[in-house]
Amino acid sequence: MHYHVLTLFPEMIEQGMGTSIMGRAMEQGLIRLTATNIRDFSTNKHRKVDDYPYSGGGGMLMNAQPVYDAYMSVAEGLDYKPFTIYMSPQGKVFNQGIAIDLANYEHIVLLCGHYEGIDQRVIDAFGDEEISIGDYVLTGGELPAMVMIDAISRMVPGVLKNEDSGVTESFQENLLEYPQYTRPEIWEGKKVPDILLSGDHARIDKWRLEKSEERTKARRPDLYEKYDLPGRALEYLLKDKMLHMDMIEDIRRGKADILAVREDGVLTKDRSGGVYRITAKTKDAGERLLSSTDPTGAVYVCHQKFVLTSILERFGLKNFNECYQVIYPKKKAPDLPEPDGAVEIRELDETYAANCALQMQQEQRAKESDQKMGQNEKKAVPEEDEKNIAKSRENIRKRDEMFWIALFSRISWMLGAVAGGVIGQSIPVELTGIDFCMTALFVTIFVDQWRSAKSHIPALLGLGCGVVLLLLVGPDYFLLPTLILVSGILLLIRGTMNSAVGAASGEEAVEHE
Q1: In the list 64, 98, 214, 382, which could disulfide-bond 119, CB 3.0-4.6 Å?
Q2: Burial code of 390-409, b = ≥16 C-beta within 10 A, e = fewer?
């Protein structure tokens, strides 16, 4: 491992890293450290490396030219571009995981800024990463660079005398280190825990793990959330094994990414199908777990109805299926009823979850496609056509109303004619009451047909026949009133049928449009 530090203060780096474990590691050749003075590459006769920033502002900014030339002096001696880190408060925060990853590099360049920083153009030219060691401001990047060198070097084989030290110390498995004790056995009345004096290494390891878990949970709950997710998830799920068998099998087969494990719930995501699986003790717990998911095109498998309600309300989803599980060992299958179409019995294999997720996603896409097609068809109807259709439907409604009005009016005219005939009995002429009644009915129907019929020939013929018969046979015979009555009834039926046919034709025309 070779560290190349670009700095304005090389002696600060060399003196700070030349002692203790780092100093011994450099003497043994396990790590190398080269501090390059950026000021040596300045073209200014006064070796000036900074200037005022454009657009004003407080402080000075390091020039791009000397920084770039210092970097090239390192890169030109290598066969490849070295991994370069700019120590910056805008970078991601350094942690143990980053230290482990960086320990795999053979060469690392650490660029230390000063004053108000460095011209952005040179950072963009060769910088691979920006890293900060915390949310606070320091004078320059030299102290952060030394912190990183120390942390990374501890992961290099041979740097630590005890190889286990780098594995068991704080943050290695997202756990803080357990409490430690040394001689004397009793100090100021406080005794070393008896288990550490027992010599039982299995019990000691268990005690250390328990204490690390307790300390991390109390002091760094953010770290504890990341600790041993599979083990903690299974511990929660196995409390109700039958309910959570799908999640348990997903974890045991290594098919699940565990997104969250809490005291009141677990959230996983299937790696093959992308299905979210969620279980929670309360609705609030379910809401907190759902906030960690991305609902875009997502499929959820939940184990409580209140979680289902939260999913439907929170994400506006409408498609859901209810699943019943029948779980039993292969060697001893129970006597199960034959499927009746509503029940399907199948083996729970590795592809089951992926197939279910794919089927639900296809159904969702099909429904969204149908909805879009319906909206497009609706938009394709011109606004003018919609108005015409509405107008035609209104005409049909009015025709229906006119048909019933005409029918009832004719009935009322018939009743009026009968009343006229009854009144006619009191007139001192030789005609009978029925003659007056029939004559009034005939005249009424004739007038109606003349007004509404498309052809007036039937009404005229009926009138003519009645007059001729009246002249030939006289009023003493009953034949005339009978013929007039028949003629009037036929004309009444014809007029009513004309109205019905007209209304039906109008409705058919609208439907065709």
Answers
A1: 64
A2: eebeeebeebeeebeebeee
